[in-house]
Specification:
This protein has about 280 residues and is of the alpha+beta class. It has eight helices and twelve strands. It has a twelve-stranded mixed beta sheet, with helices on both faces.
Length: about 280
Protein backbone atom coordinates (compact mmCIF):
# COMPACT_ATOMS: atom_id res chain seq x y z
CA UNK A 1 0.00 0.00 0.00
CA UNK A 2 1.35 3.40 -1.03
CA UNK A 3 0.20 6.55 0.80
CA UNK A 4 0.98 9.83 -0.95
CA UNK A 5 0.69 13.42 0.32
CA UNK A 6 0.55 16.53 -1.84
CA UNK A 7 -0.43 20.18 -1.60
CA UNK A 8 -0.96 20.41 -5.37
CA UNK A 9 -4.74 20.32 -6.01
CA UNK A 10 -4.31 19.94 -9.77
CA UNK A 11 -2.06 16.91 -9.43
CA UNK A 12 -4.38 15.42 -6.80
CA UNK A 13 -7.42 15.97 -9.01
CA UNK A 14 -5.75 14.15 -11.90
CA UNK A 15 -4.74 11.31 -9.61
CA UNK A 16 -7.89 10.65 -7.59
CA UNK A 17 -10.86 11.88 -9.63
CA UNK A 18 -11.04 8.77 -11.84
CA UNK A 19 -11.66 6.88 -8.57
CA UNK A 20 -13.98 9.44 -6.94
CA UNK A 21 -16.13 10.04 -10.00
CA UNK A 22 -17.37 6.45 -9.80
CA UNK A 23 -19.86 7.93 -7.29
CA UNK A 24 -19.81 11.74 -7.60
CA UNK A 25 -22.73 12.16 -5.17
CA UNK A 26 -21.06 10.21 -2.37
CA UNK A 27 -17.79 12.08 -2.92
CA UNK A 28 -19.28 15.53 -3.61
CA UNK A 29 -17.53 17.35 -0.74
CA UNK A 30 -13.99 16.32 -1.56
CA UNK A 31 -14.48 16.64 -5.32
CA UNK A 32 -15.91 20.16 -5.19
CA UNK A 33 -13.29 21.40 -2.72
CA UNK A 34 -10.40 19.98 -4.70
CA UNK A 35 -11.78 21.19 -8.02
CA UNK A 36 -12.29 24.76 -6.77
CA UNK A 37 -8.68 24.87 -5.62
CA UNK A 38 -7.42 23.26 -8.81
CA UNK A 39 -9.15 25.77 -11.08
CA UNK A 40 -8.47 28.80 -8.87
CA UNK A 41 -12.05 29.64 -7.87
CA UNK A 42 -11.64 28.87 -4.15
CA UNK A 43 -11.25 31.70 -1.66
CA UNK A 44 -7.69 32.90 -1.10
CA UNK A 45 -5.92 30.99 1.69
CA UNK A 46 -2.85 31.77 3.79
CA UNK A 47 -1.66 28.19 4.18
CA UNK A 48 -1.57 25.08 2.00
CA UNK A 49 -4.06 22.26 1.83
CA UNK A 50 -2.86 18.70 2.29
CA UNK A 51 -4.34 15.97 0.12
CA UNK A 52 -3.72 12.27 0.70
CA UNK A 53 -4.28 9.37 -1.68
CA UNK A 54 -3.91 5.64 -1.02
CA UNK A 55 -2.78 3.36 -3.85
CA UNK A 56 -2.90 -0.45 -4.01
CA UNK A 57 -1.67 -0.03 -6.80
CA UNK A 58 -4.65 1.97 -8.15
CA UNK A 59 -6.30 4.63 -6.00
CA UNK A 60 -8.51 3.08 -3.30
CA UNK A 61 -8.97 6.04 -0.95
CA UNK A 62 -8.54 9.77 -0.58
CA UNK A 63 -8.71 12.47 2.08
CA UNK A 64 -8.16 16.22 2.33
CA UNK A 65 -7.36 18.85 4.89
CA UNK A 66 -8.06 22.45 3.85
CA UNK A 67 -6.94 25.47 5.91
CA UNK A 68 -8.85 26.09 9.11
CA UNK A 69 -10.62 22.73 9.12
CA UNK A 70 -10.04 19.20 10.24
CA UNK A 71 -9.28 16.29 7.93
CA UNK A 72 -12.16 15.13 5.72
CA UNK A 73 -12.14 11.42 4.90
CA UNK A 74 -15.66 11.20 3.46
CA UNK A 75 -16.72 7.67 2.54
CA UNK A 76 -13.25 6.25 3.19
CA UNK A 77 -12.89 2.54 3.92
CA UNK A 78 -12.26 2.00 7.64
CA UNK A 79 -9.09 -0.01 7.07
CA UNK A 80 -7.46 2.96 5.32
CA UNK A 81 -8.02 5.39 8.18
CA UNK A 82 -4.90 4.58 10.20
CA UNK A 83 -2.33 4.98 7.38
CA UNK A 84 -3.98 8.25 6.40
CA UNK A 85 -3.84 9.47 10.02
CA UNK A 86 -0.15 8.57 10.08
CA UNK A 87 0.45 10.49 6.86
CA UNK A 88 -1.19 13.61 8.28
CA UNK A 89 0.73 13.28 11.55
CA UNK A 90 3.92 13.57 9.52
CA UNK A 91 2.97 16.93 7.96
CA UNK A 92 0.70 18.66 10.50
CA UNK A 93 1.78 19.62 14.02
CA UNK A 94 -1.79 19.68 15.26
CA UNK A 95 -5.30 19.06 14.03
CA UNK A 96 -8.75 20.12 15.22
CA UNK A 97 -10.57 16.95 14.17
CA UNK A 98 -11.75 14.67 11.40
CA UNK A 99 -15.05 14.15 9.57
CA UNK A 100 -16.43 11.36 7.45
CA UNK A 101 -17.95 7.89 7.59
CA UNK A 102 -18.27 7.02 11.28
CA UNK A 103 -16.04 3.89 11.45
CA UNK A 104 -13.30 5.57 9.41
CA UNK A 105 -13.48 8.88 11.31
CA UNK A 106 -13.39 7.18 14.71
CA UNK A 107 -10.50 4.93 13.72
CA UNK A 108 -8.60 7.93 12.35
CA UNK A 109 -9.25 9.71 15.65
CA UNK A 110 -7.97 6.84 17.74
CA UNK A 111 -4.77 6.59 15.72
CA UNK A 112 -4.24 10.35 15.75
CA UNK A 113 -4.50 10.42 19.53
CA UNK A 114 -2.05 7.52 19.82
CA UNK A 115 0.42 9.55 17.77
CA UNK A 116 -0.23 13.06 19.06
CA UNK A 117 -2.01 12.59 22.37
CA UNK A 118 -5.32 14.10 23.47
CA UNK A 119 -8.80 12.73 23.09
CA UNK A 120 -11.25 12.33 20.19
CA UNK A 121 -14.93 13.08 20.77
CA UNK A 122 -17.80 12.59 18.33
CA UNK A 123 -19.62 15.93 18.18
CA UNK A 124 -22.09 15.99 15.29
CA UNK A 125 -23.84 13.80 12.74
CA UNK A 126 -24.71 14.83 9.19
CA UNK A 127 -26.64 13.09 6.45
CA UNK A 128 -26.08 13.23 2.71
CA UNK A 129 -29.29 13.19 0.67
CA UNK A 130 -29.87 12.73 -3.05
CA UNK A 131 -32.91 14.05 -4.89
CA UNK A 132 -34.88 11.08 -6.22
CA UNK A 133 -38.18 12.60 -7.36
CA UNK A 134 -38.85 16.28 -6.87
CA UNK A 135 -42.02 17.39 -5.10
CA UNK A 136 -42.29 21.20 -5.41
CA UNK A 137 -42.92 23.01 -2.13
CA UNK A 138 -44.92 26.24 -2.02
CA UNK A 139 -44.77 29.40 0.09
CA UNK A 140 -45.93 32.97 -0.14
CA UNK A 141 -43.66 34.93 -2.47
CA UNK A 142 -41.41 34.15 -5.40
CA UNK A 143 -37.84 33.09 -6.21
CA UNK A 144 -35.37 35.27 -8.08
CA UNK A 145 -31.65 35.15 -8.77
CA UNK A 146 -29.31 37.15 -6.59
CA UNK A 147 -28.68 40.70 -7.83
CA UNK A 148 -25.75 43.06 -7.38
CA UNK A 149 -27.70 45.06 -4.78
CA UNK A 150 -28.08 41.88 -2.68
CA UNK A 151 -24.36 41.57 -1.86
CA UNK A 152 -24.67 43.26 1.54
CA UNK A 153 -27.69 41.28 2.71
CA UNK A 154 -26.28 38.00 1.38
CA UNK A 155 -22.98 38.68 3.13
CA UNK A 156 -24.82 39.38 6.39
CA UNK A 157 -26.88 36.21 6.01
CA UNK A 158 -23.68 34.24 5.34
CA UNK A 159 -22.35 35.62 8.63
CA UNK A 160 -25.54 34.41 10.32
CA UNK A 161 -25.25 31.00 8.71
CA UNK A 162 -21.60 30.73 9.83
CA UNK A 163 -22.50 31.75 13.38
CA UNK A 164 -24.97 28.86 13.57
CA UNK A 165 -22.69 26.30 11.92
CA UNK A 166 -20.44 24.25 14.18
CA UNK A 167 -17.63 24.02 11.60
CA UNK A 168 -17.63 27.64 10.44
CA UNK A 169 -14.45 29.48 9.52
CA UNK A 170 -14.05 33.23 10.03
CA UNK A 171 -13.78 34.69 6.53
CA UNK A 172 -14.73 37.60 4.30
CA UNK A 173 -18.29 36.81 3.27
CA UNK A 174 -18.44 39.87 1.02
CA UNK A 175 -15.96 38.07 -1.22
CA UNK A 176 -18.05 34.92 -1.00
CA UNK A 177 -21.25 36.82 -1.90
CA UNK A 178 -19.61 38.52 -4.88
CA UNK A 179 -18.39 35.16 -6.15
CA UNK A 180 -21.88 33.66 -5.88
CA UNK A 181 -23.18 36.63 -7.87
CA UNK A 182 -20.55 36.15 -10.57
CA UNK A 183 -21.28 32.41 -10.82
CA UNK A 184 -25.05 32.82 -10.69
CA UNK A 185 -25.22 30.19 -7.95
CA UNK A 186 -27.38 31.91 -5.34
CA UNK A 187 -31.12 32.54 -5.26
CA UNK A 188 -33.31 34.72 -3.09
CA UNK A 189 -36.89 34.14 -1.96
CA UNK A 190 -38.81 37.39 -1.85
CA UNK A 191 -42.08 37.88 0.02
CA UNK A 192 -43.95 41.18 0.04
CA UNK A 193 -41.08 42.77 -1.84
CA UNK A 194 -38.56 41.80 0.88
CA UNK A 195 -35.75 39.22 0.67
CA UNK A 196 -36.50 36.56 3.28
CA UNK A 197 -34.35 33.50 2.46
CA UNK A 198 -31.40 32.38 0.36
CA UNK A 199 -30.31 29.09 -1.19
CA UNK A 200 -27.04 28.50 -2.97
CA UNK A 201 -25.66 25.63 -4.98
CA UNK A 202 -22.32 24.52 -6.34
CA UNK A 203 -21.56 24.51 -10.04
CA UNK A 204 -22.19 21.04 -11.42
CA UNK A 205 -19.22 18.68 -11.35
CA UNK A 206 -19.43 15.29 -13.05
CA UNK A 207 -23.18 15.75 -13.32
CA UNK A 208 -23.77 16.58 -9.63
CA UNK A 209 -24.69 19.92 -8.04
CA UNK A 210 -24.74 20.19 -4.24
CA UNK A 211 -27.35 22.53 -2.76
CA UNK A 212 -26.24 24.87 0.01
CA UNK A 213 -26.02 26.99 1.95
CA UNK A 214 -29.71 27.24 2.86
CA UNK A 215 -30.42 30.12 5.25
CA UNK A 216 -33.42 32.04 6.50
CA UNK A 217 -32.95 34.78 9.12
CA UNK A 218 -34.68 33.89 12.42
CA UNK A 219 -37.38 36.54 12.00
CA UNK A 220 -38.52 34.99 8.70
CA UNK A 221 -38.52 31.33 9.69
CA UNK A 222 -41.45 28.90 9.87
CA UNK A 223 -43.11 30.25 6.72
CA UNK A 224 -41.81 27.61 4.30
CA UNK A 225 -39.52 30.01 2.41
CA UNK A 226 -36.40 27.82 2.56
CA UNK A 227 -38.27 24.70 1.45
CA UNK A 228 -39.92 26.47 -1.48
CA UNK A 229 -36.64 28.02 -2.60
CA UNK A 230 -34.72 24.76 -2.19
CA UNK A 231 -37.23 22.93 -4.37
CA UNK A 232 -36.98 25.72 -6.96
CA UNK A 233 -33.18 25.51 -7.08
CA UNK A 234 -33.37 21.72 -7.18
CA UNK A 235 -35.74 21.89 -10.16
CA UNK A 236 -33.23 24.06 -12.02
CA UNK A 237 -30.45 21.59 -11.32
CA UNK A 238 -32.58 18.76 -12.71
CA UNK A 239 -33.57 20.85 -15.74
CA UNK A 240 -29.88 21.25 -16.56
CA UNK A 241 -29.52 17.46 -16.62
CA UNK A 242 -27.69 17.14 -13.31
CA UNK A 243 -28.27 15.31 -10.05
CA UNK A 244 -29.01 17.31 -6.90
CA UNK A 245 -27.78 16.48 -3.42
CA UNK A 246 -27.49 18.21 -0.05
CA UNK A 247 -26.38 17.71 3.54
CA UNK A 248 -28.43 18.08 6.70
CA UNK A 249 -27.58 18.17 10.39
CA UNK A 250 -29.02 15.07 12.04
CA UNK A 251 -29.77 17.14 15.13
CA UNK A 252 -32.22 19.25 13.11
CA UNK A 253 -35.33 17.09 12.50
CA UNK A 254 -37.16 20.00 10.84
CA UNK A 255 -34.75 20.29 7.92
CA UNK A 256 -34.54 16.51 7.51
CA UNK A 257 -38.34 16.29 7.29
CA UNK A 258 -38.51 19.25 4.92
CA UNK A 259 -36.06 17.84 2.41
CA UNK A 260 -37.73 14.46 2.57
CA UNK A 261 -40.99 16.17 1.59
CA UNK A 262 -39.21 17.74 -1.37
CA UNK A 263 -38.06 14.33 -2.62
CA UNK A 264 -34.59 13.94 -1.14
CA UNK A 265 -33.60 10.54 0.22
CA UNK A 266 -30.66 9.51 2.48
CA UNK A 267 -27.46 8.28 0.88
CA UNK A 268 -25.00 8.12 3.78
CA UNK A 269 -24.39 9.38 7.32
CA UNK A 270 -21.18 11.05 8.47
CA UNK A 271 -19.81 12.28 11.79
CA UNK A 272 -17.55 15.06 13.01
CA UNK A 273 -14.91 14.06 15.56
CA UNK A 274 -13.18 16.80 17.57
CA UNK A 275 -9.69 16.50 19.03
CA UNK A 276 -8.83 18.05 22.40
CA UNK A 277 -5.55 18.13 24.28
Amino acid sequence: MDVRVTSDPQAFEQTVFPFLQQDPVLHTIIMSNVHERANGTARSEDEPSYFVSVHAPDVVGAAMRTPGRGVYVGALREDLAEPIAEAYADVLPDLTGVAGDRPAALRFGRRWCELRGGTATETRGTRLHKLIELTPLAAEGDPRPMRADDVEVVSAWADGFAAEATDAIATDNHEWARQRLAEGTLWIWEAGGEPVSMVGHHLALYGVSRVGPVYTPPEHRRHGYAGALTSHVSAMILADGNQACLYTDLANPTSNKLYHQAGYRPVADFVDVEFTA
